[in-house]
Amino acid sequence: MEGRGKAIFPFADSLAVLDRTDSQNERLQLLHRSLQQHCGIVDRVALTLFDSANGLLTSFVASPVEENPLVHYQAPLASMKSLQEAAETGRPRVVNDLDPFIVSPSHHAQRIIGHGFASGVAWPLFRQRQLAGFLFFNSYRKNAFRDRQLETLAIFAHLISNHLLGELDAVRTLVAALRVAGGLVHDMEPEPADHLERMSRFCSLIALELCRSGRWNLDDEFIQLLTICAPLHDVGKIGLPTDILWKNGRLNTTEKEVVHTHPGKGAALVGDVMAAHRGHPGAMAGLVRNIALLHHETLDGRGYPEGRGGEDIPPEARITAVADVFDSLTSPRSFRPAWNNDQAFALLRLLAIDKLDPDCVEALVNNRDGIEAIQMTFPSPTP
Prior knowledge:
The chain is of the alpha+beta class. It has two domains: about 20-165, Beta-Lactamase, CATH 3.30.450.40; about 190-375, Orthogonal Bundle (Hypothetical protein af1432), CATH 1.10.3210.10. The protein has 14 helices and six strands. The chain has helices at about 25-40, 80-90, 105-115, 145-185, 195-210, 220-230, 240-245, 255-260, 260-275, 280-295, 315-330, 340-350, 360-365, 370-375, and strands at about 45-50, 55-65, 75, 95, 120-125, 130-140. A hairpin with a 4-residue loop joins strand 1 and strand 2. Helix 5 (about 195-210) packs antiparallel against helix 6 and helix 9 packs antiparallel against helix 10 (about 280-295). The longest helix is centred in the middle third of the chain and has 40 residues, at about 145-185. The chain starts with about 25 loop residues before the first helix and ends in a 6-residue tail after the last helix.
């Protein structure tokens, strides 16, 4: 008899659950607990993402969540010289005594030291040879990170990078594939690329301001995934006839009815693609589906396709709707010039009475500097 009654599967893989959880935050916590078994001095692990288009580092996930002093954080990499040098050299920045940073004007440094951390490592992460973000390891002890500890961190840095950033790579690939599909069907994209880039970042701007003002409670993981997936809001237009999609002037009643089918088409397309992509997280699939299906719903319940109203419309769809309307108004069209920001603000506030979420509208309108920075980074082409 095989094994003579002895157990032949004695080892329990503590990381086997990584592929059975939808949350990147939960995945990082599992990996952090495993890291502590080999390197117990690591009290905090945090992953930030880098947007090469605007040069910003943005908080994403951290472990443990309750010991994270930096949430809803965003800063230009160019303002952090030592991190920029780490990115350029591809080598981790190791600081075994954070005390000298007490006088630093950096909000990041002040929050980390103020929370009691005494040493830290910033590990640059790359995907396809491009900077993707930084992994931060912090300890409450000084002189915590020496050669032996750094060798262990190197293994976990690559493991965390491949597992968490690999998932984001898959999401971005799906978004890009669906956008390319629109180009193949219509000989040009259903939405100009500059519009998609701007409205995606307007979504991030709105979400961050909602959290900073205390109006809403959204975690950094949600905000980052929303930013990545927002460009799929009108993916259902791939299924619309070209003569309607590119018609100059007003649509007639029949044509409007056809256009109103695009949210349902988009949700179905997203569902098919997500189902075909094995290992894709269920929570992500739900978020993308909500964006595609529900971004034309309105507070008064008179939107389409389901006639939802108020808080029955999920936050990702309410945020996307405001970002989409604002950028559409302030972008030139073949049948009209672009509105200026003040004109668009005035209409948004009117729509906030019964159509658009008023919190989301105010979060955008109160961020003129952020709006103008996005518009300068991703300008509309001159018609």
